[in-house]
Structures are given as C-alpha cells and as structure tokens.
Amino acid sequence: MKQKIIIGERYTALLKNKLNELGLTVLALPENPDISPHLAGHTDLSVFYPGDKNIFLAGYLKNTSFQNTLEEAGLHVSFIEEKQSAEYPGDVQLNARILPGIGNKYNKAVKNVIKTIVFLNTNTVSRTILKYLSNKEIKKCSAIQKNKSEIESNNCGVKQGNYKIVDDLRDITKEALVGKEINTVIYDENNKQSTTNIRHSHDLLNTQKYDDPIILNGEIFVANSECCRFTDDCREIQPDFELIHVNQGYAACTTLDCGDGIISSDNGICQAAKNHGIDYLKISQGHISLPGYSYGFIGGSVFLHDNKMVFTGSLRNHPDRESIIQFLSDRCIEPFFLTDEDIFDIGGAVLITPKC
User: Fold this and answer.
1) Measured in whole angstroms, how far is the alpha carbon of residue 185 from the centre of its chain?
2) Contact (CB, 8 A) for 245 and 263
3) Are 184 and 138 in contact, with CB atoms under 8 Å apart?
C-alpha cells in the first residue's frame, strides 16, 4: 500500500500530482472553521500524529468522513478537549514537532528503547496530547503496606543500590513545576536534581504526600517511608518520548525535521537544540510566503520523505539557499520541489504509514 499524506484540501489541486509521483496518496484535510481563515487549511494546527497507531484531531473533525478514513487506515483517532479559536494561543493546541530520527542519534538506548524527541510548548499544547505523552513516560509501580526493607528482597529486579529514597516523591519534580514548565526531574546525589525535559504527570501536585514508588527513565524512586515496597507487579517502562519545552507555541511550524538535525529561524528553537546537543541550522526569518501574514515558516513549507526533503516551492530567492542545501547534503538528503513558485507555507504535512 502507498504511504498516505495529509495536507489541507485547499492545497491538493496544486500539489497532488507531484505528491503522487513520490508514491504518496493524498488525504485532504477539511478546512478548520475555528481558527483564522488564513490558517484554516494548515495541517499542523488541526492534526497531531506521534508516529504510532494514534492520531489526534481538532474537534471540528469529529464524526466526519475524514475521521472514518483515518480509522479505516488502522489509526486510533482521539480528539483534543480544548475548543480552538482564531487568536494565539487558541490555535496551537496540536502544534508540536516530532523528531524521530534525532532520538536514534542523540538518545542513549536503555534496554534497546530509544526516545523520540518532541519540541513543544508545554503551556499551550493540548492537555489531551500531554496526558498521552506523559502516560508513555511514567509508570507507577504497585505498592502495598509492608516494611521498606522488603524492597531488596522482592522479585521485581530492585536490588540494593538500584533505587533512591527521597522524603516525598513530589520533591523530585518541585522546581520543574515552577512556572508551569513541567518536566520530569531525575534525582542526582550531588546536584539533588537533574532535569530531563520530560513532562511529568499532574498527580504529584494533587496529593498531600506521594508514597507510591515510581520509575522515571529507568531510575527507581521510593518514598522514605516504612510502609512502602514494590510488588511483583512492578514493571520498568521506558519513555517513548523526550519532551523538550520551547517558548515558541508554533513549534511544528518553526522546526524542520532533517533526520538527525533541524532547521529553524526561531532563536528559542535553535537554543533548545544547542542545549540538547542537536545539530541545527539557523536561517533568516521570513522569505517564505503565507497569505495574510508577513511571512511563513520553514516547518510549514517542507517535509522529509525517505531521503528527499520536499519543498512546496523553490529556494532560489531565499537568502540561505546554499546553507540549507548543504545542511541537507551533509545528511544525504536531496531536495525535491513540488512547484516552481517561491517556497510557501501550507502548515506542513503529516505522513501516515498504512497500518492495514
């Protein structure tokens, strides 16, 4: 079966034939009536696809033929709980950039599990999406009322020295929760904490005292209590995603996935990449067309397909053309241009791998 690609229906007439040449079957995204008319056809404001069997949609797509098409392709469709609106940040709840290739290069495998990096603003992205990503990151172990000395004698792989005891398990996330930048924090004996930029679940905030043992990124934490031990139900669940908070709410729009690096005109995005050891190319702001606005963004104008970087239009008038082409060439990625027009922003594209 051909791989499927979601783009706004307003762009299908112009781009469909060329996309078919790439072996892609186009799924036309209906216009979003809840956001700005200029952006109503932008996929990255109406669809979030984490790359597995799940896909998240804006509410206006509920009970539509578009939903049916995705379900027939074997995807589990969920809808964000928030109502979108035309003004920022009411339009960015689904705007997060998945960077699967970067995880393979920059993350350490723990028991053969690699994390997929996600750039997103944790304050503006949908709670529905954050909950989904968080549930994949954190697994509470079952606990029963027993003496904590039994931790080392139970059968779930917890041996002496393999766990850390803290007074209150909320303490390991306390500083990360300040300012609503919610990240998982792994306890460190020397520095007392070490942020890993992974969103933590809200339940640590909503309890008087949090005693259940939890596992975060392969490290085991046990409350400093005489009444807490692991049971045989304990399972170490490694995170699928590493969430990197950025201040830019249009994280998907402003970030171009280049396999093992990114391209962006956004200072905050580039700084986040630098902080996490991710290769990046900083380009000039603007020089990308978006009707109704002064300019568009690189992440909404280009997408990676196999070893091709697919541009909506030409880079001939872009001041960073040579740098962009070289950055791609260094990664054995060749440019492919859908039109002869100057590059323009369509709100990106979502590539769906057939599930059935």
Assistant:
1) 19
2) no
3) yes
What Cα–Cα distance (Å) separates residue 259 from each residue in 61, 86, 243, 272?
Answer: 30, 32, 17, 17
The per-residue pLDDT for 26 is 97
Calpha distance 76→50 (Å, rounded): 12
Residue 335 has pLDDT above 80, yes or no: yes
Q: Is 137 exposed, middle or buried (0-12, 13-18, 19+ CB in 10 A)?
A: buried
**25 phi and psi angles, rounded to 5 deg:** -95, 125
Among 34, 219, 195, CA closest to 110: 219
> 């803290």: which residue's tokens?
166
Average pLDDT over residues 340-351: 98
Instruction: State percent of the chain over pLDDT 90.
Output: 60
Q: What string of H, E and C letters represents the secondary structure of 181-209?
A: CCCEEECCCCCCCEEEEECCCHHHCCCCC
Residues 102, 278 contacting (CB under 8 angstroms): yes
Using left for φ > 0, alpha for ψ between -120 and 50, and beta otherwise, residue 348 falls in: left
* Cα three-residue angle 78-125-83, rounded to 5 degrees: 60
pLDDT at 355 over 70: no
* Cα-based distances in Å from 29 to 4, 6, 11, 297, 312: 12, 6, 9, 20, 17
Q: What percent of the chain has pLDDT over 70?
A: 66
Coil, strand, or helix at residue 355? coil
pTM of the predicted model as reported, rounded to 2 decimal places: 0.71
